[in-house]
Amino acid sequence: MFTSHYGGVGSLESMRAASEAGTKASRATNETMQIRRELNRLLMINEALWEIIRDREGLKDDDLIRKIDEIDLRDGVLNGRRAKQTPQDCSNCGRTLPKRQPVCIYCGTDAENRDPFGT
Q1: What is the pTM of this model?
Q2: Which of 13, 88, 105, 109 could form a disulfide with 92 if both were Cys (CB 3.0 to 4.6 A apart)?
Q3: Element (H, E) at 45
Q4: What share of the chain in percent tops pLDDT 90?
Q5: Rounded Cα–Cα distance for residues 93 and 102 (Å)
Q6: Are residues 9 and 49 in the same domain?
Q7: Quick check: 88 and 113 in contact, CB under 8 A?
């Protein structure tokens, strides 16, 4: 044991644990900042795409808002979240398809009507 410069008694294990916690917190902060940058980039891309579509098709912002609400309500709850898709079964062998697989991993049949957003 040793006496810290704060006057308390500590151990090497507690110092190591504190250092590890600080490292993990720093990593989490960096990851959060990276996610925020990516989210802002994706929001800007979505905004640009909407403006292109709106201007070319003569739509209004209310059209987009109605569509967002329609998608949000597919699970019966207006909560700002997209309803989770139920797993799809292979049209050939009947086994459940993994969400992001373009073909059945059991028989090789192309997945039909896959969710293009993979959620």
Answers
A1: 0.60
A2: 109
A3: helix 12-57
A4: 58
A5: 15
A6: yes
A7: yes
